[in-house]
């Protein structure tokens, strides 16, 4: 599978996050709280929490903020009860978009997501309208310059339980079954690997190209605005950029 589009989208998302670090910290805190509610406050016994903490630190979130989010979630009766809702739709150029949110007010979030679609020439659909164009996978990216022995990385990934491995030039893309995602990440971390990015979520089965520059810019703006929204955690799309 090609990771070209994913890598471009990741770079775009990181650039957007750098411009809105406050929003990035808010999103990380929500992820931490949900992970604690699901699996407890000990990251060694909670793979999802361990993964979220690593991502929060990579985004330069202060340890005090991380610990505060953990304590807030672990406290009896404290903290907001967030629910995960995935919205689907099409962006400019017919690009399929899936928007994963964590919210304590679904009416507010649904309105915000619909507005972002409409404002930038897209349209929000019903559940199932684009999800058939994706499959749930774990995706792990490793910098090929930092870890230049491709054969060793490939063998370590496959031995850890990865489904697929590919060299995409600047990075290696490791694909896992959803149930094996955290196990593979933990095994690779134990071997000393660091990750350029990692995601558990929808991976496109097919990709959509946009030939028109104006349409591409409109889609780019929509995706950037989605990244800036506090309720939107991740945006997945099948844009072959």
CATH architecture of the largest domain: 2-Layer Sandwich
Instruction: Determine the structural class based on helices, strands and strand pairing.
Output: alpha+beta
* Widest sheet: strand ordering: 3-1-2-8
Q: What portion of residues belong to β-strands?
A: 15-25%
- Please tell me the overall pLDDT: 89
How many strands? 8
Verbal overview:
This protein is an alpha+beta fold. The protein folds into three domains: 4-74, Integrase, N-terminal zinc-binding domain (Arc Repressor Mutant, subunit A, Orthogonal Bundle), CATH 1.10.10.200; 83-132 and 205-237, YebC, transcriptional regulation domain (Alpha-Beta Plaits); 134-204, Alpha-Beta Plaits. It contains eight helices and eight strands; from the N terminus they run ααααββαββαββαβαβ. It has a four-stranded antiparallel sheet with strand order 3-1-2-8. α1 (4-19) packs across α8 (213-228), α2 (21-39) runs antiparallel to α3 and α2 (21-39) packs parallel to α4 (63-74). The chain starts with a helix and ends with a strand.
């Amino acid at each position: 599978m090609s990771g070209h589009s994913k890598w471009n989208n990741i770079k775009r998302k990181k650039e957007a996050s750098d411009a809105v670090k406050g929003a990035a910290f808010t999103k990380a805190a929500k992820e931490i709280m949900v992970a604690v509610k699901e699996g407890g406050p000990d990251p060694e016994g909670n793979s999802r929490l361990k993964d979220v903490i690593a991502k929060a630190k990579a985004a330069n979130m202060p340890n005090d903020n991380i610990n505060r989010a953990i304590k807030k979630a672990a406290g009896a009766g404290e903290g907001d009860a967030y629910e995960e809702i995935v919205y689907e739709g099409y962006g400019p150029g017919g690009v399929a978009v899936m928007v994963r949110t964590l919210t304590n007010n679904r009416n507010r979030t649904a309105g915000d997501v619909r507005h972002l679609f409409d404002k930038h020439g897209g349209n929000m659909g019903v559940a199932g309208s684009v999800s058939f164009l994706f499959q749930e996978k774990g995706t792990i990216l490793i910098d090929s310059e930092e870890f230049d022995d491709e054969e060793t990385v490939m063998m370590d990934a496959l031995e850890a339980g990865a489904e697929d491995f590919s060299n995409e030039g600047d990075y290696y893309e490791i694909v896992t079954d959803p149930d094996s995602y955290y196990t593979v990440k933990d095994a690779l971390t134990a071997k000393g690997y660091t990750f350029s990015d990692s995601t558990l979520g929808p991976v496109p089965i097919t990709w959509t190209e946009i030939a028109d520059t104006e349409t591409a810019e409109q889609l780019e703006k929509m995706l950037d605005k989605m990244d800036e929204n506090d309720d939107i955690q991740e945006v997945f799309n099948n844009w072959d950029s």
